[in-house]
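Fold tokens
===========
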Amino acid sequence: MNIYIVKDNKTYDITSFVGNVSWSDSVDTLGSQLDFSTGYSSEKYFPQFDIECGDIVVMTEENEIFRGIVVTSDFSNYSEKSYTAFDFLWYFNKSKVIKQFNGVNAGDAIGQLCSEFSIQVGSIAPMRCLINHIYYENTVSEIIDDILEQEFNETGKTYIKEIDKGSFYIFEKYSKIVQGFFRPASNIAPFDVTLAPAMPSRSFSIEDMKNSILIISGEENSVYTVGKAQDTGSISKYGLLQEIENVDDEDLNKAQNIAENRLKELNKISETVSVQLFGDFNVRSGRVIAIKEDYTGLNGNYFIKSCSHSCSSAVHTMDLELEIVL
């Protein structure tokens, strides 16, 4: 693994004096985060290099893993400086825009936003929904989330968004499969990281289950049901757990679709799974990984909700939060 700083159109290799490194991403947030530290000493011959907010940081291991901007720097002790960087989708979380779409395809609408912020698009999955909306005082990430929610309401499809090697991608959930490998040393063959799971945890809950969905419209004094979906078997077993959502007049023709798609999404026992594995930077959130672990009974394909890589004392590990692929 190598760490570089790019400033003033020059690239500097700072790998030799970088300490702890962690890289994390989650499907619930837009963009990934890199945290690292550098040693510090006032001794004359100790290597010195100024890393400033706004510098570009690049992490590689054979291929580029992360490229982003240094957002914070912290000098709170006499032996170490700490830094946090985010990939370039950080700007989507921080910048508000005014944007109007008139019958624009959802994927094309997202592409337009990327173009305005000079974010290179790798690929955006085909979408069907047409966006008719005026956005104001919304961040770009909020607009993208709303567009993807409209697509879900119409098609029932969920999408993952990420930046990889400087390009923006949106792909369907469960569409990317990954297998991780770890090589303990250069003279030892790599092995499947799922063969040595550590600290597995698994829990189940119906806390967020909804087995009845009502879609309503109208004002406070005149509300009427425009869509409804229920699972009578689930209601019989767990009791009535109902969710009510309000739609605007422009979405009345989609109301039943919305009810059925929301029922598919919420009518389930939630399963929380976490596990620690040896690290492979090819493993990240938004992928599906196969795991078998006897203690907790994990056995099947699991969707990676979040992934946190840590490199310390030359040991690379990763902590995964997972959900079962149904």
Notes: The chain has a mean pLDDT of 90. The radius of gyration is 23 Å. Residues 161 and 170 are 4 Å apart (CA to CA).
